[in-house]
Design goal:
With 499 residues, this protein is an alpha/beta fold. It is built from 16 helices and 23 strands. A seven-stranded mixed β-sheet has the order 15-16-17-14-13-19-20, with helices on both faces. A six-stranded mixed β-sheet has the order 10-9-8-11-12-22, sandwiched between helices. Bound molecules: nicotinamide-adenine-dinucleotide.
């Protein structure tokens, strides 16, 4: 059986003796396709030492030379797009076109990182006082780490290491143990692109490796993306060990549909955003909020019709809109949420449980599921389901519709469908959510803007990528300089002021 190792100090290494192996499934067939070697604290230490050794020289290169490595990395990843997308689909279960999108969205952050010399320019004030100039510079933190979820095994690692490395840090990546191959491959390609050994390391594993990262004295900052309880744990623990931490959590994004919306377009978009990637996206739209009875009826009718036309298939099927979920355990969790929704009194309009594909009876498939009359006090509304389950939560008015996502414990993304610019503008300004789409279903910001939710969707105060990413992975040093000549100036015994 294929064994997936770690990448430390520029070489693939096997699992430490005594450490376990994790099963990596083929979600289409349900069979175990590979075993991932789990790391431990000693391996994290090896990676941290290698990273620290590499970092000094890497940071001393001028930023343009680091940017050239990013350009070459982008070229190599693009040249291997087919291989990476196939590997990603085989472990995650998302369809190939979606896997290419996963790689592509990560590459867009690498493109941003190619311009890092510009982003690293400091600030300068000439003549801040008599003969005094002040300037500030952004310097890398040293060794930093990223812990990533299963649902974007290419994009999210690149969000993190793309910027962290370009600004002069070295990096330890702890990918999801459910689909660990693509992150490993990316590390190999980064080295092939010219990054010195130790600049990008991958340590596979689970909680033991995460805890070793959070407590390691050489690691200065930790970026995390995953579910909210673990994000909060990582945030608290990392901070307690004196690290800078940004920790993105779960989501429950709402799609608001006002009565004047283009319903055909909205339906189309909502179907894609709710069921694409089997609903395993933190920017999916698992809740739709039609405003008014008439809108609800018309939308529901269109959604049901749209669901009838959806094709669920194996991840290699070019005609399939989505594939299986990632593991059997995840399938069970999603199906028990569906059962709970029924018990709570929501109306199950389309039931995706029990869906099977001929020849793939043991695959982790769930058909598209639709609930109506979902209320905000139901736990299945409050909780993230992270599967192909769409809930209709009806609203009576614009204010009602605004209140739902604003009062929800998660605040990652939200979308509004309307032809009324004033209503959309008002909604975007007042909604208590971090990323807003106006007639855009999945408002993941472009790489040179920044990604981050609010409330339980993110702990810490800097977002991913864009200038926020540059800020997260650098510290500011401010220099106040004067060059006195001639007579000795009297030193003041009070705090100096710029008069
Ligand atoms: P997860 O929280 O189970 O795992 C995330 C990472 O944490 C993995 O690397 C995992 O190995 C590690 N981990 C798991 N259990 C741990 C523990 N007890 N202690 C320490 N570390 C632990 O998340 P997942 O299932 O891989 O990914 C799906 C979740 O990620 C969803 O909640 C989704 O909304 C969220 N997500 C959020 C964003 C965002 O930007 N807000 C983006 C993508 C995914």
């Amino acid at each position: 059986m294929r064994e997936i190792g770690h990448f430390v100090n520029g070489a693939i290494v096997g699992g430490p003796p005594g450490a376990g192996r994790g099963d990596v499934f083929d979600p289409n067939s349900g069979a175990v396709q590979a075993r991932v070697a789990m790391g431990d604290a000693a391996l994290v230490d090896d990676a941290a030492q290698a990273a620290a050794r590499a970092q000094t020289g890497w940071a001393q290169l001028n930023p343009q030379r680091r940017a050239r490595v990013m350009f070459e990395f982008k070229r190599l990843v693009e040249a291997r797009m087919d291989e990476l997308a196939a590997l990603l689909s085989a472990e995650h279960g998302k369809v190939i076109a979606d896997s290419r999108g996963d790689v592509q969205r990560g590459l867009e952050v690498i493109e941003f990182a190619c311009g890092i010399p510009h982003a690293l320019k400091g600030e300068y004030t000439e003549g801040a006082g008599p003969g005094i100039d002040v300037y500030s510079m952004r310097q890398p933190l040293g060794v930093v780490a990223g812990i990533t979820p299963f649902n974007f095994p290419a994009m999210i690692p690149m969000w993190m290491f793309g910027i962290a490395i370009a600004v002069g840090n070295s990096f330890i990546l702890k990918p999801s143990e459910k689909d660990p191959s693509v992150p490993l491959r990316l590390a190999e390609l980064m080295m092939e692109a010219g990054a010195p050994a130790g600049v990008l390391n991958v340590v596979q594993g689970d909680k033991a490796v995460v805890d070793a990262i959070l407590t390691h004295p050489l690691i200065r900052a930790v970026s995390f993306v995953g579910s909210s309880d673990i994000a909060h744990y990582v945030y608290r623990t990392g901070a307690a060990y004196g690290k800078r931490v940004q920790a993105m959590g779960g989501a429950k994004n709402h799609g608001i549909v006002l009565p004047d919306a283009d319903l055909d377009q909205a339906t189309n978009d909502i179907l894609g955003a709710a069921y694409g990637s089997a609903g395993e996206r933190c920017m999916a739209l698992p809740v739709v909020v039609p405003v008014g009875e008439k809108t609800a009826l018309a939308l529901r009718e269109r959604l049901v019709k749209g669901i009838e036309g959806l094709k669920v298939g194996v991840s290699t099927d070019p005609d399939a809109q989505y594939g299986p979920v990632v593991t059997a355990a995840h399938k069970d969790r999603v199906e028990s949420s569906i059962a709970k929704g029924i018990l709570e009194g929501a109306e199950l309009v389309v039931d995706g449980r029990g869906f099977t594909l001929q020849g793939y009876e043991k695959g982790f498939f769930i058909g598209p599921t639709l609930f109506d009359h979902v209320r905000s006090d139901m736990t299945t509304y409050q909780e993230e389901i992270f599967g192909p389950v769409l809930q209709i939560a009806r609203a009576n008015s614009f204010e009602d519709a605004l209140r739902l996502p604003s009062a929800h414990p998660y605040g990652n993304g939200v979308a509004i469908y309307t032809r009324n610019g004033k209503a959309a503008r008002d909604f975007a300004a007042r909604v208590d959510v971090g990323m807003v789409g106006i007639n855009v279903p999945i408002p993941v910001p472009v790489a040179y803007h920044t990604f981050g939710g609010w409330k339980r969707s993110a702990f810490g105060d800097t977002n991913q990528h864009g200038m926020e990413g540059v800020k997260f992975y650098t510290k500011v040093k401010t220099v106040t300089a004067r060059w006195p000549e001639g007579e000795v100036e009297d030193s003041a015994f009070v705090i100096p002021t710029m008069r």
